[in-house]
């Protein structure tokens, strides 16, 4: 872990407690003489009410759990820092986006959306990507997802969406899944969801790692500079390792093998010093160009194609420290899109406008009252002063007799700050019109960008989309709901609708489709960065392996940043033919091929038939998930025996240097999709 400390770390030090070597006390500091038995009237008598320690201990336990988030309940967090590459003063007066010499502490929470706190992590779902910047001007929260659009256009529909996707109320099933009737009924009756559904049915909804997924602010915000000039902006996080995903069969198996797969991957990468990195990008549109596009830039179901509005990379965030306590930090952190600093402002996106109310309202019930901002993880690093007082969980001890504005007794302090002194001033946008419940006509095109997404996919990504629709709608019992989905997505792509209709028992449509021919290469993960670093490779060894060659191969893989774990049939040490030894990290029983990015099989002179049987199962499953396979020495024959040799991404041979060079390239590729044709 990094030894570099931020101002936020130093602030949190006063709240960190190390109990080792200490006497036990009550919460008021009274030393406790007994923690095994409650105070009773005689050894077999009733417990006495005066046992204040028992009551304190039990009452605290009774209230250890706070209400979980209705959405984004299953999440995990990490501390980090943000470094600006170039000043953005021409766009914004926000200090942390102006001064390249400053390092801004951050805290990021990743999450699934639909599942409960105890659900698995590799489910098909959007992922939350919420970032808290602890700036010198106050906390700024960029509360986004790994998908740049959303299901609905107006926040008033959010309760309906969540009710539809959550477990159905009559039987509380299914957990953390959208493959059921009420969700797809909602989709069919709310066709503005078409674009987002394309993303959630794509590989984007089953990321390989939280370190390998993009983040988006979703909404259109404003940047305002010192001269008061505004630009529309969308925020992006671009993972340095590229954007990569699981395959569906693999994702489902991981849910059973390791339901903590994503948090474990994030936690261990930070502990190992392989700090996740994300570059911050912005798309900027001048105010005068607001209406120059074939979509409404304020519509949260629309993205700005990167080929039309390029993403400018302006900084990098590095996650370099794990949380010390999951409850105190991950569970008590409170994000809010309304937490902004001077230079960042809002637009009239109706989904964003509703979120500005909802997040505060949510924290009030979850965190027990209005003082959640005083919890250590939520405190800004800059001082804060106002006339707010009292309430549950108040930690600030305010001195003096005055708690109102205006006043003379305290010389009218705390006093508002002028804009020149850093006071927040809302952008003065002209607004006029009748009070009305309606939707702008510019929001009513629900299919063009869904088609843009389809057009942008590679062949294997299109096949995955058809399979995802087939799986999800195959779980829907209502034939009418299935038919409505086919009819709806025929407006996106006739090929898509016909592809999944035949798999779910619905007559494929004969007409439909879209006139949209445009594509956006940036939307396809086939065009992402490919690196071997931090990839996890399972190395299958039996006693008697070629010690010299394996030692050299592992050394060369490590030099490329590839992580390796030794897999064998028994715990302990596995020994090579030259006396070299490796500690066995896992046996065939304690791990699985789905938990690795690639396999490197070697075997050994002392391998038994049972060993080869287990190894063959690992290799065949990894091959079916299009993963790289490497084999040297005894294991070369295993590939032939299992008809796995001579395929893309399968590397075999005993020339260590040539083998490792080719295997590293295969690992960097992530998947070898041409094997889908086999």
From TrEMBL:
Residues 1-25, 507-529 are annotated as: Disordered. Its EC number is 1.11.1.6. Decomposes hydrogen peroxide into water and oxygen; serves to protect cells from the toxic effects of hydrogen peroxide. Heme binds at residues 69, 109, 158, 355, 359, 366. CDD domains: catalase_clade_2, GATase1_catalase. This is Catalase. It catalyses: 2 H2O2 = O2 + 2 H2O. GO terms for cellular component: cytosol. It is an enzyme of class 1 (oxidoreductase). Residues 25-413 form the Catalase core domain. Keywords: Heme, Hydrogen peroxide, Iron, Metal-binding, Oxidoreductase, Peroxidase. There is a cross-link at residues 336-359 (3'-histidyl-3-tyrosine (His-Tyr)). It comes from the Bacteria. Residues 7-22 have a biased composition (Basic and acidic residues). Its cofactor is heme.
